[in-house]
Design a protein that fits this description.
The protein contains 16 helices and 37 strands. With 751 residues, it is an alpha+beta fold. Strands 1-2-3-32-33-34-36-37 form an eight-stranded parallel barrel, surrounded by four helices. Strands 5, 8, 9, 11, 12 and 16 form a six-stranded antiparallel β-sheet that branches. Strand 33 (585-590), helix 12 and strand 34 form a beta-alpha-beta unit.
């Protein structure tokens, strides 16, 4: 068996403890020799095991002295760093630790996608002092994720309603807050780039839960018309989950409910909050949110729940719904007034596509497109808009101004379809149907056409028909055609929401996976040499798990596979190999492989074969084995046989055995010990020595601080709540040693 300096020191400490134990025992405990007791006395504790068994267990060496494979334990990082007794038990008995939570995506990644390594780094340093290694747990899983951050990456692009608000937000945009009143001023600031489309946002930080108004921002007075209906809306998100409300002055109800509650909920994804109707008890129905004064105020009340909140400044709107209608352009950055190509994509650059201020029809900028000397097809020079969401039941007018340095020719195609056609023939010039339009030299020309039966489209300016032509495009608009006689268009009911395509989501999530794995594996390249790369990929039927049918996913659940498909694990293993050491041991890990008909075990093995058929390499398979006293022993043996037949390293990754009570009987302690020994026996019997990576027990002791969130009101571990060895310790050690270790003890037992 293994013996090192740590074990020798421990041997002498055990001798001392045993001596003290022998001295302290006396005849008043003789009744505890018997395996049973008066049931009226209550449940048995570890200290009440038969004295002969107590002494046997106390004479056992530390656990990792009984095996040559890696013996690991799942730990709580905080307990290990702060509790000396806990830390000593870990250091003395194990070779490797697995951090239960703190190395997972949800713990490492903040709301901005940045990783905080400080806690785990401190742990690594502590482990190095003790001579222990660390197992990486876990890279890609569907639980314990920063789901708010991940979902925010693939959230729709939102273009808020604009140009109609009665609220002046200039004092927010310049950061002066002039005219605005702040309660908890230090917690209310302006952050550039934190809003929608990288615009400015108001940041609210509530460090202590209290009254709604403890963190409050109140607007200046807003002129209003008594009796007019108003719609107040804004977009908000938070770091994690949160809650807030709006309060008002001068409205029919200054504390209205929204979405059925006094508070609205927030998350890491942008959410629109809108107040436009309030409940009227007299009418017994919702009525318009009307003004009852010539001036109103709005207030953001975010002091109720701790957290950090962001309100997009440009989306805050106070709209008089009874005012004259106004025109709204559905084309983002249609006048190129951002001074760049925001909301546009260059598909084929020709001789160059840029925004310029040298030629413009209106405003300050236009788009400049130059065809190359060899240009001959429309698609040789292409500029495409972001996707535009329209209502197929409405009629819109699409128009733009175009100018060229010499006579030119172009067209607009409609990816996604316009009037059911991506390349429609249109009466651009009034001289007959054609898909192309011509541009006279040196003058701005208006191109205009009505759109019907059109939903989600993009605008692609295809200007490559002729070589060596410079075009200028400006004032690109899609506006709803007025139902009234005047030329103004009724305000749209909500923002333009541009959903990302499945392909775009896959690209974004793929990049997020690479960033996460690259940072974790690279950072711990010198310290971690084995990883759970993919955790719990299979459902109980033995097929790839999905979150699409999960009715109420937890707030920290995110399913990478729903965006990257079956090959998500292929990518994960390739990335872990790319950014880690060539000798790192990379595992796939799952639970319940011993259950039922073993279909989950078969499915995992099949998936391992699939992953490797795609060019990735898996070194090992982890089986968690969260068992109970009634677990099917035959299934456990068959599972080990199936796993061993793969030729992979086999790791028991999270072993614990539930009893079902925090106060077991002596018989239950004995059954638990027998089950621990059985698992080790089957591992040793069916897994060849060369394939035994090792066994990791999950948690150290029955102390509630360790497993209150995992197995509350139970006693699943090898040590009791006071860190005394249980009967299970003997069973586990005997399994590791392959014999009853106590049979070799010499000398008379003292009790």
């Amino acid at each position: 068996m293994k013996l090192n300096r740590k074990k020798i020191i421990h041997y002498f400490s055990l001798f001392t403890v045993n001596c003290l134990l022998i001295i302290s025992l006396n005849s008043c405990y003789d009744d505890k020799m018997k395996w049973g007791r008066d049931p009226s006395y209550g449940d048995v504790t570890t200290a009440e095991l038969p004295l002969a068994l107590q002494e046997k267990i106390s004479r056992y060496d530390v656990l990792n002295s009984y095996t040559n494979f890696v013996l690991g334990v799942g730990i709580d990082l905080t307990l290990y760093m702060e509790d000396e007794t806990y830390r000593n038990v870990v250091n003395e008995n194990f070779d490797e630790i697995t951090v239960g939570y703190h190395m997972k995506h949800g713990a490492m990644v903040n709301a901005n996608g940045e990783l905080n390594f400080s806690q785990v780094d401190a742990l690594v340093n502590k482990l190095q002092e003790a001579g222990l290694t660390i197992y990486g747990h876990t890279l890609v899983w569907h639980k314990n994720q920063n789901a708010s951050y991940m979902n925010s990456l693939i959230a729709p692009e939102i273009i808020p309603s604009s140009g109609e608000s009665q609220l002046d937000v200039s004092a927010l945009l310049n950061g002066s807050f002039t005219g605005w009143n702040r309660n908890n001023a230090g917690g209310i600031t302006i952050v550039q780039g934190a809003g929608l489309n990288n615009g400015p946002a108001i940041r609210f930080e509530t460090t202590k839960a209290g009254n709604e108004w403890d963190t409050q921002l109140t607007s200046p007075s807003i002129p209003s018309i008594i009796g007019h209906a108003y719609e107040i809306s804004f977009w908000i998100k938070s770091e994690g989950t949160g809650q807030g409300r709006m309060s008002f002055a001068g409205m029919i109800n200054n504390y209205p409910w929204v979405n059925g509650g006094a508070l609205f909920s927030t998350s890491g994804s942008w959410t629109q909050v809108t107040y436009k109707e309030v409940w009227d008890n007299t009418a017994g129905a919702n009525v318009p949110f009307t003004a009852v004064a010539n001036a109103i105020k709005i207030a953001f009340d975010l002091g109720k729940v701790t957290g950090v909140y962001y309100v997009d400044i440009n989306s805050i709107s106070v709209i008089d719904k009874d005012a004259e209608p106004a025109e709204v352009n559905y084309v983002g950055n249609g006048g190129f007034e951002n001074g760049d190509l925001t909301s546009w994509s260059v598909l084929n650059a020709g001789a160059g596509i840029e925004v310029t201020n040298t030629e413009k029809f209106s405003g300050s900028y236009s788009a400049k497109m130059i065809s190359s000397s060899s240009s001959s097809n429309a698609w040789n020079l292409q500029l495409e808009s972001a996707q535009i969401s329209l209502d197929a039941s409405k009629t819109y007018n699409f128009s733009f101004y175009v100018k060229s340095n010499v006579a030119g020719k172009g067209r607009v195609s409609f990816p996604g379809g316009m009037n059911g056609n991506q390349y429609p023939w249109l009466n651009w010039t009034g001289s007959g149907a054609s898909e192309a339009f011509t541009t006279p030299a040196g003058q701005w020309t208006l191109i205009s056409v009505d759109l019907t039966n059109t939903t989600n489209v993009k605008l692609s300016f295809d200007m490559g028909y002729l070589p060596n032509v410079t075009y200028y495009i400006d004032d690109v608009k899609i506006v709803e055609k007025a139902a009234a006689k005047n030329s103004k268009v009724l305000r749209r009911a909500g923002p333009i929401i541009i959903n990302k395509t499945d392909e775009e989501k896959a690209q974004i999530i793929g990049a997020a996976m690479e960033s996460w794995i690259k940072q974790m594996v690279s950072h711990y390249k010198k310290d971690v040499h084995a990883w759970d790369v993919v955790n719990e990929p299979m459902n109980d039927a033995g097929t790839i798990r999905s979150g699409k049918n999960v009715t109420a996913p937890a707030s920290d659940e995110f399913y990478w596979q729903d965006y990257l498909g079956k090959d998500y694990a292929v990518t994960a293993f390739k990335l872990a190999r790319q950014y880690g050491n060539s000798t790192d041991k990379l595992f796939i890990n799952d639970y319940g492989l011993e259950n039922g008909s073993l279909s989950k075990c078969d499915g995992l093995i099949e998936y391992v074969n699939y992953i490797e058929s795609k060019g990735a390499t898996i070194d090992g398979i982890g089986t968690q084995l969260h068992l109970s006293l009634s677990s099917n022993k035959d299934n456990i043996a068959q599972m080990f046989q199936k796993l061993a037949a793969t030729g992979k390293l086999i790791k028991v990754s999270e072993l614990d055995i539930q009893i079902g009570t925090a106060s077991p009987t002596l018989d239950q302690y004995a059954e638990q010990a027998a089950m621990y020994q059985y698992v080790v026996d089957m591992y040793m019997q069916y897994v060849p020595e060369a394939q035994r990576y090792g066994i990791t027990v999950w948690c150290v002791s029955d102390n509630a601080d360790e497993h209150e969130n995992w197995l509350p009101d139970d006693a699943p571990c090898l040590w009791d709540k006071d860190y005394k060895r249980k009967h299970a310790y003997k069973g586990f050690a005997d399994g590791l040693a392959g014999k009853d270790v106590s049979a070799d003890f010499t000398g008379e037992l003292q009790y």
